[in-house]
Amino acid sequence: MSTLHRLPDRDEKHVGMTDRTDPRRTGHSEEPSSPAPREASRSSLAATAIAGAVAMAVAMGFGRFSYTPILPAMMADAGLSPADAGLIASANFVGYLAGAVLTAYGWAYGHERRIGLAALGATTLLLAAMGLTSSVLVYSIVRLLAGLASAFAMIFLSGIVLGQGLRAKSEHVPSVHFGGVGFGIALSSICVWAAPLAGVAGLSASQGDWFTGALVALLGTALVAALLPGSDHVGKGAGREAPLTWTRPLTVVTLTYGFFGFGYVITATFLVAMARGDSGGHSVEFLAWLITGVSAALSIYLWRFAVPRLGLAGVYAAGLLVEAVGLLLTVSLPVSVAPLVGGLMLGATFMMVTAYGLQIGRQLAPESPRRALALMTAAFGIGQIIGPVVAGWLAERTGSFALPTLVAAVVLFCCGMVVVLELRRIRAALAR
Once rounded to an integer, what is the mean pLDDT over residues 23-40? Predict the structure, then answer.
């Protein structure tokens, strides 16, 4: 998410278009063939946005989040405890943290496309590898490497896709691109529900799910390779930034962003397992994760309509509070609907809070944005690592996921209220 850019507003777009196309300003009549290049450019931009969405679906929807719908079958097939499941999930987040921090530096400059595609290929292989073992240690190693691969793919390929969108002054490219995460989540839910490879050649349910995910990821990687343009760098590239200055608004946003990582990941990891444990049935498991994916795919596009009224910081705070309410509903509503509501509220908020939080961090540290993003990502990653371990430990001792969910809700509510209390200072800092 570190590459989410703020696009020019509509007035700036229209002024630029008028300057280029108005014959009264240029002194030339418009060439009859001029619409053709524009159409070609639009087609190229659409192909780039689709490539970005598919890349996010593979790297994040399958590479990171398909663990959630497959987890119940893994626990049954391999005899995993909630603590084991939390440990394996945390290993993935350790890998993601390492990958995100590594990408904050300039070592890959000029090779982003090649590295991003290699990371998608590695994601495909690692999805398949999950179906070849039942060892907690091996599961953890594979998921750690998968986290590293998904971070590389997400950040490097996002740089290409969003860079193209920024140059074209398109406000739709970021929504399509990041919407791919939700699309991948929804598709992974459908794959697990349909279980096309389960029972084939003696495969267990979880093996069939992992191999199906690998097949889908392979097809997606091929599509991205065909559609994605090369890196298009402008200027001198990545230079040395000034040391990061820790202002009060930046400190508040970074800390709340880290605790958000702790809070959201508990539901993101255990939502489907909670549905199975509450005897919601296979249909509820499927629908809960499908709803999560669909709402995540639409969330960034829909939340942007609230930005003119609330501002970036206000929307960020609202997302934290809404997700806290969603977690409370997950443990208080009847078991037949609680996972569905929890999935809806999770999907509607976590992608937006992630993207907007990093965008705020960039704007609060204009002289050293890469350092700010690296440290915010580190804080977020630490929260993600601790969350599943704590949740799995509490669930194993209490016999349910109710207590860890309530802990996550309290953490997110406190984060939201801290941002609300600091809203005036954050807005003032953003306006500078």
Answer: 46
